[in-house]
């Protein structure tokens, strides 16, 4: 659903998982602006190998310690998490092959309840 081309040798290539594409398509039906927000964040990551602090990018723990997550949308104060206000992306980077693989996109609950 999101395509990004590599212009320089040092830029990462984007490889979304099938699950990621299905999940993003489902979220886009709820709020089309999610797609552009995701594309912008991934473009930054592909170019710079890291995201600004507002994305709260961090390594995961335990059985998911090979992966990272970053926040696209955080639940506003005094609101309950929902499908369109609690959105994270789990991903990994293979620096040897210069590939960023997006694993999942969705709410904390959806992603992490499926993993336990």
From TrEMBL:
Gene Ontology BP terms: mRNA catabolic process; translational termination
Pfam families per UniProt: YafQ_toxin
InterPro entries tied to this protein: RelE/ParE_toxin (IPR007712), RelE/ParE_toxin_dom_sf (IPR035093), Toxin_YafQ-like (IPR004386)
SUPFAM superfamilies: RelE-like
Keyword Transmembrane recorded: no
Keywords on record: Toxin-antitoxin system
MF (Gene Ontology): RNA endonuclease activity
Signal peptide annotation: none
Domain of life (superkingdom): Bacteria
Name recorded for this polypeptide: Uncharacterized protein
Organism: Apilactobacillus ozensis DSM 23829 = JCM 17196
């Amino acid at each position: 659903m999101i395509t990004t081309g590599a212009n320089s040798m040092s830029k990462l290539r984007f490889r979304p998982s099938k699950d990621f594409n299905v999940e993003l398509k489902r979220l886009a039906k709820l709020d089309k602006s999610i797609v552009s927000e995701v594309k912008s964040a991934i473009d930054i990551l592909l170019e710079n190998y890291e995201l600004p602090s507002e994305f709260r990018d961090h390594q995961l723990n335990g059985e998911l310690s090979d992966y990272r997550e970053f926040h696209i949308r955080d639940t506003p104060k005094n609101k309950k998490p929902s499908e369109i206000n609690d959105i994270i992306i789990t991903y990994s980077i293979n620096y040897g092959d210069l590939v960023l693989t997006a694993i999942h996109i969705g709410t904390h609950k959806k992603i992490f309840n499926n993993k336990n």
